[in-house]
């Protein structure tokens, strides 16, 4: 037996000449990511359903990497990544947290821990924009849950590793969870699972029960167990006969899967291994797994129990062994698809063949009580230096950078430079008003003020495609307690929506009512808490309400403004349509609205005005947002899915000094165009939700009647819930799915047996159905209590935003009457 007593496995150099492994030196936590080769950097996101154990797993990663001296606990509220007061008090992740740490001396991992609750889905969206790969954490008891399905789809192009967590819990099923993964994500695709390790259960002499204590390393044919009293100790043993049989079958299945796609492994198997599965080297298997993982052809699967500190080190090894570096990941999506891009080992993404071009994306804004506003950025190309002059190609603004930081959840460390592949923080007064979420930043990698040497037309106009912001579905009215509190309320709301763009503010011009809009009840609850307790706004809130929208069903008249001093604009508003020829399309805000600019000679010629073309465009976009936010004629709800088209004959005076007049002109034209449109051309829209219900079979009729009658739901399907495939004896019998991939069956433990006995006492409870439906959000609010009543507390449901749809005529008047 080898006993690994390595507290800092990550950076320890160990003496392996004896069976007892001993630390020689540890210094990994002082490793600077700026000195690490790009090929050794991993940018990963932790994604999962709520309560699957994301934060618990992250805390163990930080402990074993040497970043934290103790293991943070969600229940006691001392975690590193959940550092907000609201997160620690509720025991959930609310915002994504970024942290950088080393692993195994030479690797740097930049990790973003994301929320699992559906209300905070925007945090997942913006994290996925800047990471290169994912670690998907699954609850071994619950299997694949609703939010797991959603984040899997959102991250479909990202290479993944799956970690089946909570293997120590009652009802945990490795077999069921892997089969669930295959059935929900891999059936009908070319992607297949590869079991890198499998659970190891140890029989307890006193009770004859089997307890989860470690994993079987399929590639190296070893058993790894963890000491429950010492989190730093790992025992590495040879396999007993039963475990060896399991391991060999898993390895054979692994090789069969890999050789379907990897000709190099086929050659190694036939020649060097002489067709013998046992002779296939660990190095060949790891190389093949890495290659195919990065092509999204396989998903490596590992297991463990994060709360018991089991399986974390093998998971971190899998991250660095199998997931891509920044020079192996997807190329960023740029607005100009004709600009050449390729990866370079030194500069990262080489854009336009210019090694001096630095491109970064601002993906998150936070407000630190001491340092003020801080901007999270991902560096895609080149080097970002403190003090550099930076060009914001999204806004057209130019400014000088202040201090740079590397994030460590609630804290950060100052650095002089951020290199390609890194995630860092920008600070200082110059960034506060010049950068927002989704902005692209461009600078020269080596010159402090080198923007002049960059190609103005090709390089300074580059933008990384913006971060998608889903529209809000709930709103709550907000007003200051006294008139003197109004300014502080507006400042607090501005800070709030700057940090979280999935929150928005709308104002009814007739009533003057201000409404804070968000993604769900919990989202708004947290926002209200932050406004009052963190931002000290003295405000009052109204009742929660559904966020309706309006749209138009026909085009407005063309409105024109022309002045003697050189201003000319003509525009019209119409429902969203397919892309128009010879036009450039710009997204406006979060309501699926667009600005359409007809092309003319101005786009191709050298721009002569003092004010940049980007500043003029941003002013027009700002006027569009204001004009559409004024609302429609049915109930003054903000307009949705509308396009504003500026005709090609627009012009501005060449000596224009500010774009303020443009903003005023275009806003007035938009308002006039919409005011002239008759009321019958406006349509009321409501949020429609995808509903997933899991209920006992005996309650299906009652629940369906309620859904289709009282809640106006459209039933999409009724399916059987898949049930765990647990073996009847502790002999580790196997199962194979339709792809003939070997998955070891679960050992029957006393806990499993007790649970199964309890389930079988009621056959109607043992057979469960999944109802999938679409339903208006208004009809599903406060549904929890109703479902509890209909299913005797045995039903559960998840909802997810589907889209905005026209309110049906039979419900229109009642909705307008209730507003």
UniProtKB/TrEMBL annotation:
<dbReference type="InterPro" id="IPR009000">
    <property type="entry name" value="Transl_B-barrel_sf"/>
</dbReference>
<comment type="similarity">
    <text>Belongs to the TRAFAC class translation factor GTPase superfamily. Classic translation factor GTPase family. EF-G/EF-2 subfamily.</text>
</comment>
<dbReference type="InterPro" id="IPR027417">
    <property type="entry name" value="P-loop_NTPase"/>
</dbReference>
<dbReference type="InterPro" id="IPR041095">
    <property type="entry name" value="EFG_II"/>
</dbReference>
<dbReference type="InterPro" id="IPR030851">
    <property type="entry name" value="EFG2"/>
</dbReference>
<dbReference type="InterPro" id="IPR009022">
    <property type="entry name" value="EFG_III"/>
</dbReference>
<keyword id="KW-0342">GTP-binding</keyword>
<protein>
    <recommendedName>
        <fullName>Ribosome-releasing factor 2, mitochondrial</fullName>
    </recommendedName>
</protein>
<dbReference type="Pfam" id="PF03144">
    <property type="entry name" value="GTP_EFTU_D2"/>
</dbReference>
<dbReference type="InterPro" id="IPR005225">
    <property type="entry name" value="Small_GTP-bd"/>
</dbReference>
<keyword id="KW-0547">Nucleotide-binding</keyword>
<feature type="binding site">
    <location>
        <begin position="113"/>
        <end position="117"/>
    </location>
    <ligand>
        <name>GTP</name>
    </ligand>
</feature>
<dbReference type="InterPro" id="IPR031157">
    <property type="entry name" value="G_TR_CS"/>
</dbReference>
<keyword id="KW-0496">Mitochondrion</keyword>
<feature type="binding site">
    <location>
        <begin position="48"/>
        <end position="55"/>
    </location>
    <ligand>
        <name>GTP</name>
    </ligand>
</feature>
<dbReference type="GO" id="GO:0032543">
    <property type="term" value="P:mitochondrial translation"/>
</dbReference>
<dbReference type="Pfam" id="PF14492">
    <property type="entry name" value="EFG_III"/>
</dbReference>
<dbReference type="Pfam" id="PF00679">
    <property type="entry name" value="EFG_C"/>
</dbReference>
<comment type="function">
    <text>Mitochondrial GTPase that mediates the disassembly of ribosomes from messenger RNA at the termination of mitochondrial protein biosynthesis. Not involved in the GTP-dependent ribosomal translocation step during translation elongation.</text>
</comment>
<keyword id="KW-0809">Transit peptide</keyword>
<dbReference type="InterPro" id="IPR035649">
    <property type="entry name" value="EFG_V"/>
</dbReference>
<dbReference type="GO" id="GO:0032790">
    <property type="term" value="P:ribosome disassembly"/>
</dbReference>
<feature type="domain" description="Tr-type G">
    <location>
        <begin position="39"/>
        <end position="327"/>
    </location>
</feature>
<dbReference type="GO" id="GO:0005525">
    <property type="term" value="F:GTP binding"/>
</dbReference>
<dbReference type="GO" id="GO:0003924">
    <property type="term" value="F:GTPase activity"/>
</dbReference>
<dbReference type="InterPro" id="IPR004161">
    <property type="entry name" value="EFTu-like_2"/>
</dbReference>
<feature type="binding site">
    <location>
        <begin position="165"/>
        <end position="168"/>
    </location>
    <ligand>
        <name>GTP</name>
    </ligand>
</feature>
<dbReference type="InterPro" id="IPR000640">
    <property type="entry name" value="EFG_V-like"/>
</dbReference>
<keyword id="KW-0648">Protein biosynthesis</keyword>
<dbReference type="InterPro" id="IPR000795">
    <property type="entry name" value="T_Tr_GTP-bd_dom"/>
</dbReference>
<keyword id="KW-0251">Elongation factor</keyword>
<dbReference type="Pfam" id="PF00009">
    <property type="entry name" value="GTP_EFTU"/>
</dbReference>
<dbReference type="InterPro" id="IPR035647">
    <property type="entry name" value="EFG_III/V"/>
</dbReference>
<dbReference type="GO" id="GO:0005739">
    <property type="term" value="C:mitochondrion"/>
</dbReference>
